[in-house]
Amino acid sequence: MIELPVTVCPSCQCRELKPHTPYETMNYGERTTYQCTACGRCFSPTTNTFLAGIRKPLSLIVHVIKARTEGMGVNAACRTFGISKNTVLDWERRFSCIKQTLLLYALLQIYLKLIIEGDELYTKVGKNVPPDESLGWTVVLMDRASRFLWELKCGRKDRKLFRRALRTLRKLIIRTKDITLITDGERRYGNILFEICHELVRTGKKGRPRKTLKKGAKVRLKNKGSQAHKKGRKRPKYEAPCPEHPETVQDIDLRAIHANHCEAFNSSLRRHNSAFRRETNTYAKNEKALQRTLDLYWVVHNFMRPHFTTKEVPAVALGILDKGLSWEQLFMLPLAA
Q1: H helices, E strands: number in the chain
Q2: Which of 4, 197, 199, 287 could bridge 45 with an S-S bond, Cβ 3.0-4.6 Å?
Q3: What is the largest CA-CA distance in the chain?
Q4: How far apart, in whole angstroms, are the C-alpha atoms of residue 122 and residue 154?
């Protein structure tokens, strides 16, 4: 039986509650509805959570979500656990809504120094089309030290996709004293971040103030591939693709400019997410379905599963939590609208 702590009213957020009426559930024993002393609303302890209206045993739900985040396809999960496809998809939609609640909590923290790696991962969606037309491009923003995933956004590889992913990084820059973004070859990370997160440096001299990144933010790019066969001026191997604030401390070692951890994660995601499998028909049928599986993996990776290199849950290694969340705690979190 799950303990269901109720602390606030879902309507007016009042904390003064009183027990109202007990009721019996099919698989979870007896529960009690609560009444708010401020607005008078009566509500169940599972209101606006994953468990609202759920009748299946919790153990079955846990087994299905674990299997899906370990690489099992949705049809295979239905056959293995004897449930319908609509039921599995409904559970995944509910569980993926937890991401917004957890991401908001993570962005409220204050960080002293972060190094973020950016990379892209490709898969087909719906049908096999040229890569530049596919909706299966996924932008990954990962904290290097803790392996915490700040973003997993999918879509067509254009400015709109990068802008959606970098909005999270913009919010993170506001809460961080020193943040570094490192990418391999893709210049749009720095260029778009500069567009949405910049400030004017006013020196008191005549002329237009210089536009730079926010103070404390750094972007470094490692140009991959050989340019020996190309004519004209060669690009440097390591560079800053956009102007930075003059008071930003420049302490990046050139040898540390790489996205190797993101590359390793990309290989891991291909094993743990069936939508990224090659030579099979388990790929996602549309962009929304692919994003749902990515949100599912984001929650389990960041807040439940210890990383095999750090031996810690990424949220714990980053200092967001003291220990990883349990399934019961996740299921009782309020869902995002």
Answers
A1: 10, 11
A2: 4
A3: 79
A4: 9
Q: Is pTM beyond 0.90 here?
A: no
Sequence-distant (≥ 6) Cβ neighbours of residue 168 within 8 angstroms: 103, 107, 141, 150, 151
In a shared domain, residues 125 and 190: yes
Say whether both 173 and 241 belong to one domain: yes
- Phi first, then psi: give them for residue 181, nearest 5 degrees: -110, 125
Q: Are 245 and 197 in contact (CB under 8 A)?
A: no
User: Is 167 a domain residue?
Assistant: yes
DSSP state of 256: G
What's the length of the chain?
A: 337
Q: What is the pLDDT of residues 78-91, one digit of tens each?
A: 999 999 999 999 99
Question: Are 17 and 118 part of one and the same domain?
Answer: no
Note whether 299 and 336 are within 8 A (CB).
Answer: no
Half-sphere exposure of 302 (CA within 13 A, CB side): 29
- The whole domain housing 194 covers 101-201+210-226+235-283
Q: 9: which DSSP letter?
A: -
Q: In whole angstroms, give the CA distance from residue 236 to residue 168.
A: 29
Residues near 185 by beta carbon (within 8 Å), at least 6 away in sequence: 221, 222, 223, 224, 225
Q: How many domains does the chain have?
A: 2
Distance in Å from the first CA to the final CA of the chain: 27
pLDDT per position as a tens digit, 89-107: 999 999 999 999 999 999 9
